[in-house]
Amino acid sequence: MILRTPLPEFFNDICEVVRLFISVSEIRLAEPGQDADLIHTHAERDGQWVEAFDYIGAHREAALAVPGGDALERKKQLKRLIKHTLYLLLRDALGVRPPWGSLTGIRPTRLVYEALEHGMDEAQALNWLSRTFDVSEHKSELLGEIVRAQRPVICHDTGVFDLYIGIPFCTTRCAYCSFASDELGNGRMVEPYLDALLREIAATGELMRTRGLKVRAAYMGGGTPTALSATQLTRVITAAQREFPNAIEWTCEAGRPDTIDRAKLQALLDLGITRISINPQTLCDRTLEIIGRRHTTRDTLDAYALARSMGFDDINMDLIAALPGEDIADFERTMRGVCELAPESVTVHTLAIKRASRLHERGYNQVDAPTAQRMVELARDMAHAAGYVPYYLYRQKYMAGNLENVGYSRPGRACLYNIDIMEETTHNLALGAGAISKWIFPERRRIERAANVRSIELYIQRLDEMVERKAHVISMYDDAPLN
């Protein structure tokens, strides 16, 4: 598709809306004099922005009074106007209404909180969301449930932070994965990586102590943390708990059932960790083979039973809707099987085919949007029937049906870390290769990031630089106290 726009700084935003409706491999800006498939015009007159789009003979125009405020706020409002104008054109021209309307962002809950901050009650906020962005009633109701679950536990204390520790190793790489993780192979990089990680833990622990900042929730993810040995897990977590003591929640993403054994689970229990995630993704063995998982449904059931028998009382299980080769009946069997196990929480992801994944390399076509949507709706209905409530949500690019990932939990068992990281209300100190720390400046409505390099080798070589990046961001916080 060829696009002509006088505002190329909004090119990516326009592309996001196009991909809500049309599967296109490439969208390019028109060269001077080149014909375009999609034409955008922009004007400012009589104190208004006027946006117009033309596509296959259809035309749509909309205007908005140029708002006051700072440049960032004006840019945000202009972006919304551009995206929604194009959305309305394509919706009417193609006869398709995406469930999330014109929203393409990762965190739709943020808009609900924004409306609440402006004095609306929940019903008014959800109505505003539907009117302004054409969000479906079903998705508005979902957001309302999530906000109600979050509000009693959401944190705005700038004196605390969450901790993320990344273990970027897996026994194999899943076909849908695009994360910065390496297969274990012969394991030659594991010990050098852990040595560097322990150095980063010690250095950042000192940074936090000197500023009087306290850890709220800690999360060990990856990759697959339980790809490590019991001894290695103990080594890393002991160091983290020494530097960042008294977290009110500690999660270890055990992940793949085939990496879980009694020794590793006992090591976690000995360290006081009783919240883990056991992630089958599906209970269909045929699909597990297709996506490159080296475990079976029986492995999942055995790992879950072992964890329960040892005393783990807070278990999450991850599932993926719209996996290759699965139909609605396959997904329903998986969801029913997991609900019968009765973990404290279930996270239902919708397959997103990232460009760096093997599924993308193979040219896999996602399931059609109506099928993906039915799977996600089925998950919600079955979760409700089993006593779960949705407590966090996020969206991704390239997701089947332009849908969402939703975390469900038993009442009172929501994962604090997941809420904090998705709503971006709490500082996040992220350690390890590919980890991205975020420091929150609420009064400035700004987030500063400090990213670690993705490469394990470069992370080890440039560790001092990674620590310095964090120190720089935290020093900006020192210069602008928020309490």
Number of DSSP helical runs: 16
Helix content: 40-55%
Instruction: Profile the largest sheet.
Output: 9 strands, mixed
Overall mean confidence score, pLDDT: 92
The Rg value, from CA coordinates, equals 23 Å
**CATH level-1 class of the largest domain:** Alpha Beta
In CATH, the topology of the largest domain is named TIM Barrel
Taking strands numbered 1, 2, ... along the chain, how are they ordered across the largest sheet? 14-15-13-12-11-10-9-6-16
Summing up helix and strand content along with how strands pair, one would put the structural category as alpha/beta
The number of domains: 3
At the fourth level of CATH, the homologous superfamily of the largest domain is: Aldolase class I
- Beta-strand segment tally: 18
**Which word captures the global form?**
globular
Which CATH architecture of the largest domain?
A: Alpha-Beta Barrel
Q: Between the first and last Cα atoms, what is the distance in angstroms?
A: 49 Å
Low-confidence stretches: none
